[in-house]
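Hey team,

Filing this mostly as a record. A colleague (T.K.) asked me to run one chain through the structure pipeline before their review meeting, and I want the input and output archived in the tracker in case anyone asks later how it was produced. No errors, nothing strange. Just documentation.

Input sequence:
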Amino acid sequence: MSKGVFLFLFFSFRILGQEFIDLKGQLFEKGTKKELKDVPLYLLPLKIKSITDSKGHFSFLKIAKGNCRLIINEAGFKKWEEEGFCQESKNEIKLYLEKIFYGSFETLIRGKAEKRDDQTHSLTQEEFISRPGSFGGDPVRAAQNLPGVGQVGSSAQIIVQGASPEDTGYLINGHRVPLVFHFGGLSSVIIPNAVERVDLLPSGYGPEYSKAMGGIVALNTKRPETDRWHGLAFVDLLNAGVMTEGPVDQQSSFLIAGRYSYVGQVLKQVAKKNDNFELTAAPTYSDLTSLYQRKLNEKNIFKTTFIASRDELELILNKAANNDRDLRGNFYSKTEFFRIIPQIVTQIDSKSKMDHSLAVGKDILLVDINGRYLDIDAYTFSHRSEFFREWMANYKSYFGFDNKWDYSAVKVNLPNNFTEGGVGNPFSVGEERKFINKGSSTELGIYLRQEIKTSIDSKWTYLPNFRYDYFSLNKSSGIAPRF
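Output structure:
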């Protein structure tokens, strides 16, 4: 027998006698149990590599049984090494990588965020939660620390580039809301963990928005987590809250969060039992957020958002202040609103997209001073649609509608402060004057945004844009070219 034939038979019998095994498992982050994707795993000295998928799964198939070492050396995590990993087949291996640092303030390195206007300031959830001056991660508080933004004392009003606070517009998922802060600026009306991004659009923004001379503060809600169910709860001196989110099925996910402030309830009980409390402010607020997102098919994604907010402030006067009969009784105010915002995004092809959304809701304002009141109920319906097309690498266009319809009822009961002789009547005993006023209004908007570059590598971008608005309240309209 020749030497070559002998070697062939020797190795053939050795291979036939070799036992092979399969190794399958899942990789998690230790402590949080977050599934880790795109993490490489190595078997040495076999020099075999596997990479985890979107759910953290990995597999090594048909591995020769014997002695090997598993190594995982992922940035930000402690190195994992385990000897004797190839002794037997395993189908449900669970490995947990420990992060090197779990602190709140981490260094984030990311690419430039995609935004339409260079002057737009955007803060992601990771940024505003850890940002100094955000009062525990509040997104709007964090935006107030951006350049060009101010605040009126301790109130919830926001000043953008020196404009009047009333000239700032507030948006949630592109639709207007009466406010984004609870009274006194204590916190925004959405729990921070449900917000994906907050945008500050100073004056000179694009044609997508209107009716705000100072600027716009826009909150964008997140997509609920799809890997597993998450939850949080908190209690502090001001309020308590709870949130949970997770997958409903393979195509959809859901989030619900609620928060309630109980300071006012405590102060009211103290005032009732203590006559020394001549003046007691009893503020309370609450909010509820619900998000649902579903992938309808490969081209369509449906999302609906429900936002509700309520603020109440009560001043309890147990005694007439300084024996002044004009200042007695109770003062009560309430500001409340809700919005239901369904949205569908259609990816027509790689260069075209449609975005449609509606917002249906109600705004309530009530001020009651010992039976004298201002009561406003406003029903609102708004609609936004936008078509995006990338015609070529250096030319993009956006065409859209921005419409709003309102129906409101105003009820007033105020005293007549002056008599014919010009002598003022006390507010508490003046003659009552009541009236009810009902009305509706329409605001229509249409816009075209174009982004043009002379070449792909050009540092200059030209934006020949325009917007048309119509207001039924004063029957006015106008075209606003924006270049």
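Quick notes for T.K.: Residues 9-15, 103-113 have pLDDT under 50 and may be disordered. The two ends are 89 Å apart (CA to CA).
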